[in-house]
TrEMBL record:
This is Peptidase A1 domain-containing protein. It comes from the Eukaryota. Residues 1-205 form the Peptidase A1 domain. Belongs to the peptidase A1 family. It comes from Panicum hallii var. hallii. Signal peptide: none annotated.
């Protein structure tokens, strides 16, 4: 299991559950909240990927080119700072987010490597980060891995917040040898991720906003 914090020290856990967080009132055993997605691999390639059926912005399916997501799947990589989307996936997702947020009055010039940036004082803030459209990976079986404002927007300075998704460089649109999306460390932060290679599945759960990945209580076992 892996849990990356926004601040402080995260954890990598080899072995079992249960897992509890501080404060104790924030949740019970966090592993009971896990949702699961299959992990798959291609012949001759040791990397595992998540089969994704679509991407939704504000609960609306983003129109993508045929086979855009099946040509390479979605992988996770902690060495990538922000989620990178292949060009044929990036443009529809970013445009859908821009339309859903509909805050042209708050837009400011892009700050590399990000394209969509806003004056942060003009975006309503809430416990789960900026009140912006959710972005979700739509998985098999009707499940979704959803990124709210705390994992979709990054403060690049004291006045500017940007959509924390970037376009892959050096990869052709629809290239089947490339992942359609690489989920980066920023989007993984404060999510509990369980990699079960025996069952070939990924478990994922958002850490409750009252706690963080740096707040595990390893003294409690039940």
């Amino acid at each position: 299991m892996l849990c990356l914090p926004r601040r402080g020290e995260g954890v990598a856990i080899f072995g079992g559950a249960p897992l509890f967080l501080l404060p104790e009132s924030s949740t019970g055993d966090l592993t009971t909240t896990l949702a699961f997605a299959p992990l798959r691999s291609k012949r001759g390639n040791p990397l595992y990927y998540i089969p994704v059926q679509g991407i939704a912005v504000n609960h609306a399916q983003v129109p993508l080119p045929a086979h855009a997501l099946t040509a390479g799947g979605v992988v996770l990589c902690t060495r990538v700072a922000y989620t990178a989307l292949r060009a044929d996936v990036y443009r529809p997702v970013v445009d859908a987010f821009d339309r859903a947020l509909a805050r042209n009055d708050a837009k400011v010039p892009a700050v590399a490597p990000f394209e969509l940036c806003y004056r942060s004082s003009m975006l309503w803030n809430r416990l789960l980060g900026y009140a912006v459209p959710d972005i979700a990976l739509v998985l098999e079986g009707g499940k979704s891995w959803t990124f709210v404002g705390s994992n979709s927007m990054v403060d690049v300075n004291s006045q500017t917040a940007c959509l924390a998704f970037v376009e892959m460089k050096g990869v052709k649109a629809g290239d089947p040898s490339s992942a359609a999306a690489v989920v980066g460390g920023f989007q993984m932060e404060n999510h509990l991720l369980q990699f079960d290679l025996e069952k070939k599945q990924l478990g994922f759960a958002k850490v409750p906003f009252l706690s963080a990945c740096s707040n595990f209580n390893f003294t409690k076992t039940q």
